[in-house]
């Protein structure tokens, strides 16, 4: 399969390299750090840290990569072909108990390894067992009515119904292995089950199934949930984040974080003379947000989003300029495994860049990299070094490059190196002495691809599993 996919596009990639005036380089050892390299990253210069540098290198920075109709078609293809994307409307109104149990059990395996806590101490097996038991599998009824909800606050998605953070080793308290992802204000969910302690829901969202704290979900009818945000007036968050204004009158929508690509409905007919939560609204967008009432029910209330916030009246046009601009808005943000720390990880990073254009991507690298809805070049053990290099030479800004457990976005080429922007908790190069050096990038960083080391002897190029591109389906 991989060789066949590569052979389809290899002639084009080779031709592209020749048209650009660069023949395939001789295969050689990866470039090592030099004393003049900026910030201990191979080849990095200060000006590479500005989106404008890479935009100015584009031949047609404002040319549409996909127009709105093509993006809609791409999303339809994603929802049709990719099994990691869930059509919530297709979940039956009456849930079968055996199906619910299957969804919960396949979402996370029962742990068998030793975990460590934030105190660096081993976590007792009985503590782990109690968290697993809190799933309440024995409480699943033979049949139950599906419940529908909107997420009211940025909320962690967890492998098990607990806030307990678990780590693989005593010295690593950054990557919580039970942190799966996050949901965002306005996300629709179908509630499949409730935890034994009554504090968690197991939910299906469009891109993930996992546990979320009940306090972040308001339960309503299906029509209200699925129609939220479907009107003609809305704002798209185009900054890395935006926040609603502080409002002590309605703390449920005060200082609420809204991440890149979130779509919030605007109450365009709101009378200018009517204050919102103690503030006159002419300097804001009056938006509508979901909240959870004390009884757990859903309500929709007005909130204020400052006009100074980085937002737009529609999804951004998908152009090279906008792709690079959006990516660099995250530069320097701390890496957050599974959307920890109110930030994001590598796949969340690229997902939210593309979300600002209205494009749906799978949540995890394992699904993104093999998605049949995208234009994929696949690699395997039989892929030669020359084939890998040809694919790298043919990459375009916005292309997504996958190695096991990680994804990067291409931004351009300079002096024989292919440059990426990516959200990484690691990163390593060969040092001045030729030995591998851990860079501890731990955030959104700009690095070259070719010198990045996956081990003492293998480069990222050696370990590439897939390259994915979002483009017109007839653009061969």
Automatic annotation (TrEMBL):
Alphabetical list of PROSITE patterns matching this protein: NLPC_P60, TAT
Record GO biological process: proteolysis
Pfam families per record: NLPC_P60, SH3_6
Tree of life domain: Bacteria
Leader sequence segment: 1-28
Keywords from the UniProt entry: Hydrolase, Protease, Signal, Thiol protease
Protein name (record): NlpC-P60 family protein
Species per Swiss-Prot/TrEMBL record: Stenotrophomonas ginsengisoli
């Amino acid at each position: 399969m991989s060789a066949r996919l590569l052979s389809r596009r290899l002639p084009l990639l080779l031709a592209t390299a020749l048209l650009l005036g660069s023949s395939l380089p001789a295969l050689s050892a990866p470039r090592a750090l030099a004393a003049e390299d900026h910030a201990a990253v191979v080849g990095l210069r200060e000006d590479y840290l500005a989106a404008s540098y890479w935009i100015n290198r584009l031949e047609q920075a404002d040319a549409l990569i996909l127009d709105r109709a093509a993006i809609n078609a791409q999303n339809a293809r994603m929802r049709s072909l990719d099994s990691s994307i869930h059509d919530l409307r297709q979940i039956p109104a009456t849930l079968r108990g055996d199906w619910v149990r299957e969804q919960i059990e396949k979402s996370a395996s029962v742990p068998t390894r030793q975990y460590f806590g934030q105190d660096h101490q081993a976590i007792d097996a009985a503590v782990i067992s109690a968290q697993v038991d809190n799933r309440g599998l024995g409480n699943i009824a033979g049949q139950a009515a599906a419940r529908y909800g909107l997420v009211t606050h940025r909320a962690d998605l967890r492998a098990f119904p607990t806030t307990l953070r678990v780590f693989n080793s005593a010295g690593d308290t950054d990557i919580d292995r039970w942190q799966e992802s996050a949901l965002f204000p306005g996300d629709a969910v179908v509630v499949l089950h409730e935890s034994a302690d009554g504090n968690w829901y197991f939910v299906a969202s469009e891109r993930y199934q996992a546990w979320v704290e009940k306090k972040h979900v308001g339960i309503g009818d299906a029509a209200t949930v699925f129609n939220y945000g479907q009107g003609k007036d809305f704002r798209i968050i185009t900054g890395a984040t935006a926040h609603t204004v502080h409002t002590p009158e309605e703390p449920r929508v005060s200082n609420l974080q809204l991440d890149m690509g979130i779509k919030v409905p605007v109450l365009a007919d709101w009378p200018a003379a009517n204050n919102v939560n103690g503030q006159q609204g002419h300097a804001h967008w009056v938006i509508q947000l979901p909240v959870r009432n004390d009884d757990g029910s859903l309500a929709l209330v007005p909130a204020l989003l400052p006009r100074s916030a980085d937002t737009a009246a529609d999804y951004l046009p998908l152009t090279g300029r906008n792709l690079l601009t959006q990516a660099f808005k995250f530069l320097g943000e701390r890496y957050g495994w599974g959307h920890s720390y109110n930030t994001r990880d590598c796949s969340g990073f690229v997902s939210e860049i593309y979300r600002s254009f209205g494009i749906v991507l799978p949540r995890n690298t394992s699904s993104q990299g093999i998605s049949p809805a995208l234009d994929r070049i696949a690699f395997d053990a039989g892929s030669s070094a020359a084939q890998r290099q040809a694919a790298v030479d043919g990459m375009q800004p916005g292309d997504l490059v996958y190695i096991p457990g990680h994804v990067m976005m291409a931004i351009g080429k300079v002096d024989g190196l292919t440059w990426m922007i990516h959200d990484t908790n690691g990163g390593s190069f060969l040092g001045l002495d030729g030995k591998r050096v851990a860079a501890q990038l731990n955030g959104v960083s700009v690095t070259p691809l070719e010198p990045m080391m996956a081990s003492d002897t293998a480069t990222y190029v050696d370990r590439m599993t897939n390259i994915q591109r979002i483009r017109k389906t007839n653009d061969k």
